[in-house]
């Protein structure tokens, strides 16, 4: 089943939707153009590590 899930397509769809969202009239954070992790990583890696893959290490 996992081999049938196209993570890059799912990620691209999600990112495309996020680009239209505003929060209190502000655009959301800048997201990478391509999904920075695999399905296996998404299922097994801690959420904090996945967030770091998206935005870099927490600076504050």
Describe the structure.
With 60 residues, this protein is mostly helical. The protein has one domain (2-55). The chain has three helices and no strands.
Produce the secondary structure layout.
Blueprint: H1 7-18, H2 39-44, H3 47-55
Key traits:
60 residues, mainly alpha, 45% helix
Rg measurement, Å: 13 Å
Can you give the mean pLDDT?
81
Largest sheet: none
**Secondary-structure content class:** mainly alpha
Q: Structurally, how many domains make up the residues?
A: 1
| Low-pLDDT segments | none
Question: Hey, roughly how much beta strand do the residues contain?
Answer: under 5%
State the end-to-end distance: 40 Å
Report the principal-axis shape.
Answer: flat
Number of helices: 3
Counted beta strands: 0
Would you list the SSEs in sequence order as H and E? HHH
The helix fraction, in percent, is 40-55%
Oligomer: single chain
Summary of the model, kept short:
Helices cover 45% and strands 0% of the residues. With 60 residues, it is mainly α. It has one domain.
């Amino acid at each position: 089943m996992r081999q049938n899930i196209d993570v890059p397509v799912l990620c691209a769809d999600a990112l495309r939707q996020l680009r239209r969202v505003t929060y209190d009239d502000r655009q959301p954070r800048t997201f990478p153009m391509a999904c920075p992790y695999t399905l296996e990583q998404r299922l097994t890696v801690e959420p904090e590590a996945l967030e770091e893959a998206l935005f870099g290490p927490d600076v504050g």
